[in-house]
Every structure is written in structure tokens, then in C-alpha cells.
Amino acid sequence: MIIENQGKNKCISINQKLTHENIIFYDSKNMLPANLVGNIRNYIEMKSPDIKNDKKYWNFYVVDRYREDIIQQLKTIIQNNLCHTRTVLVISGSLDKNIIKYLYLPIKGIVSLTYLTNEYKTVLSSLEKYEMFLDHDLQKELISVININTPSSIPVKKFILNKNKITINLSEREYQLLQFLLDGYNVSEIANKMSFSQSTISQNLGDLLKKMKASSRTAAAVEVIRNGWIYTCR
């Protein structure tokens, strides 16, 4: 392994991967700035001892776009340490709809390199607390999770909750809220449809996310789809 620190604002030159404690960075094209690697390391060591001591490995895998060969590499990495690893994809290129395909892997998050650089504390905290983080810029592409990889050539028009498959206890209002999230409505639109104030809906959504252990409305919708709690209407 070759590691060359070329200065504060330079990139670390990495032959294959950089490891430190329970953190592993896979960065074959040397896209990670040295200061970002240091910030992540320092945050885990100094700011959040609970993260460091939970004996879970953190794999940060840098990719520029969706590629089938990356899928195979990730499957190998994840399968080797599935129960003890949080694998996070760091996207150095654009967050287009194809990136959503990676969600079919048992990864813990997808984040742009820019967002991780600026908000690494938010990302790490969310992953530690909720075991999930999805970059905000991917929210509009969420429906592609089903459309891209389903065998039918007819696009999905609507996701409908299947109450018989949901494994957590939800109230009738929470079912309604979750359905509206799947339909892509924002807080204002949901409040209007349910004839409640936006503050009430925000509070209800916060309670729902806590119950689902989801870090965001998008993360909740991803979990619903992943868990198969839906019908698809075409």
C-alpha cells in the first residue's frame, strides 16, 4: 500500500485502499482530499467515541458513476463483513438517476463527495444513529429505484402500501403519511390534503421517522421499498 501526503489541500495518493482503525477508504482514482480523510478520522476518534467503540468497520467507496463492475466489487466487500460493516458510496461525479441502482445493495448510504466534504459530521452522525444516509439531491430520483430494475417494460405509476407486510405498528394517520411520502408530496401538500397545519404534519412525520428509525423522509421511503411493503400500480 502506498500512501503519500502531498499537503493540506492535495489528494492522498492511494494504491488500493487507505485504512485507519476501523475506517477504510477505497479510492482508486485518488479523489478524496487529504483533509477530508483526516476530518473523518478525527471525528470518529475524538468527537464520537461511541462510533469508534462499536467495532463496526466503515467502508467509504468512491465511484464516479454507476458501473456494473463496481456492483460486483461492492458485493464482494459487503459479503465479507456484512454484519460488521457500514458501506457508504461517495459519488465523485453527478448524482444522476442511475446512481439509485446502487440502493439494491445492502449499503448504508450514498453521498456526493461535495456534500461529504462540507457536511461529514452530519453524514457520520446520521449513519451512526439511523444506519442510513441518502444525499438530498437523490430524492427526486427515488421512484427510479423500482422503474429501473423491474422486468416489466411498463413504468410504475404509483406505490401503494401493503399493510399486511408492514412489520412495525403504525396508526391510521401514519399509514396515510407514509403513503403520501411514497406519492412524493411535501409537508405543505400533505397538510393541505389532510386538513392539518404544517406544524402538526411536521411533528407527525418526525414521530413516524423515529418509529421507523429513518434519518429523513427519503430514507423512510427507501426502506419501505427495500422491505417490500408495497404494491406497484402500473
TrEMBL record:
<dbReference type="GO" id="GO:0003677">
    <property type="term" value="F:DNA binding"/>
</dbReference>
<keyword id="KW-0805">Transcription regulation</keyword>
<dbReference type="InterPro" id="IPR036388">
    <property type="entry name" value="WH-like_DNA-bd_sf"/>
</dbReference>
<keyword id="KW-0804">Transcription</keyword>
<dbReference type="InterPro" id="IPR000792">
    <property type="entry name" value="Tscrpt_reg_LuxR_C"/>
</dbReference>
<dbReference type="GO" id="GO:0006355">
    <property type="term" value="P:regulation of DNA-templated transcription"/>
</dbReference>
<dbReference type="Pfam" id="PF00196">
    <property type="entry name" value="GerE"/>
</dbReference>
<feature type="domain" description="HTH luxR-type">
    <location>
        <begin position="163"/>
        <end position="228"/>
    </location>
</feature>
<protein>
    <submittedName>
        <fullName>Regulatory protein, luxR family</fullName>
    </submittedName>
</protein>
<dbReference type="InterPro" id="IPR016032">
    <property type="entry name" value="Sig_transdc_resp-reg_C-effctor"/>
</dbReference>
